[in-house]
């Protein structure tokens, strides 16, 4: 009966020698295989990996960090993973990270820009292969300057800052950017409403200073301008991308006696709240008021009536973020990707008077 080999932990130089002896190679060859920074013959690499498995060798992550290599993880930094918009991007990130042989580490920030900075700094210290920050960026110069600093710091240690759903930090900043046509989606949806006869469109969920909101409102306004119209400022309500704001905002519009035939909600969650408020007030959708959203999360199909909205390719955003970041040396000219959006017509919209 073969003698059982005790597990060997990769926490000192002797363990590397153990692997080298088992594989019949030098300790420096084992280090090259572990670091992945120098070419090693396939047959030699196979012998080293086999020896590592037989000895149950575990690489010491701290030692690897000191040696300058990354730790085979991808960090996913998000406001709130319970939100369906983020959850579906997370699925794409996790699927692609797994396909690339990386672990996916989830970090939540609860909408606090300072926590975003703290998480990115921690991931730099941990030498993650990529740090993927998802969601709109705030118009704050100090925040942008700090993110730019981290982009360069991550680049120096062989990692990568990836921005998903937010604009680039500026020319010369070593970051991967994966966006979607945010403004174009809002422009298309607003144009659809206007050309269907809705001249008075309320907008719920403007978040001043947040890039996602600013871009959507820009598309909303541009569609009006193209048709020689001007949106009524009284029908544009500030708030948050939440169901509660949609509910309270719609109630506020109804209480004011404002004249509107359609509601453009900043997100599908905002639309869900607006639909609830309209239903409670016995306002028929779409007979009396049409309602549209943005994102096309699964909730949009479950609402009554099913929600007309703008489709965002959530999972592809996540997959592309990982793929471009990990293969940036092979794809140097493809580090800023803009994915398309399109409107999805369902039961919550109708021409006024029809």
Question: What do you see in this structure?
Answer:
The protein has 354 residues and is an alpha/beta fold. Helix content is 45%, strand content 16%. It contains 13 helices and 14 strands. It has helices spanning 13-23, 27-35, 42-55, 61-66, 84-99, 113-126, 141-156, 182-195, 211-226, 243-256, 268-280, 299-302, 314-326; strands at residues 9-10, 58-59, 73-78, 103-108, 130-134, 161-164, 175-180, 201-206, 236-238, 262-265, 290-292, 309-311, 336-339, 342-344. It has a 6-stranded parallel beta sheet with strand order 4-3-5-6-7-13, sandwiched between helices. Strand 3, helix 5 and strand 4 form a beta-alpha-beta unit. Helix 1 packs across helix 2, helix 6 runs parallel beside helix 7 (141-156) and helix 8 (182-195) packs parallel to helix 9 (211-226). 43% of the residues are buried. Residues 1-14 and 61-68 have low confidence and may be disordered.
Topology:
Blueprint: E1 9-10, H1 13-23, H2 27-35, H3 42-55, E2 58-59, H4 61-66, E3 73-78, H5 84-99, E4 103-108, H6 113-126, E5 130-134, H7 141-156, E6 161-164, E7 175-180, H8 182-195, E8 201-206, H9 211-226, E9 236-238, H10 243-256, E10 262-265, H11 268-280, E11 290-292, H12 299-302, E12 309-311, H13 314-326, E13 336-339, E14 342-344
Parallel strand pairs: 1-2, 3-4, 3-5, 5-6, 6-7, 7-13, 8-9, 8-10, 10-11
Antiparallel strand pairs: 12-14
Helix pairs in contact: 1-2, 1-3, 5-13, 6-7, 8-9, 10-11
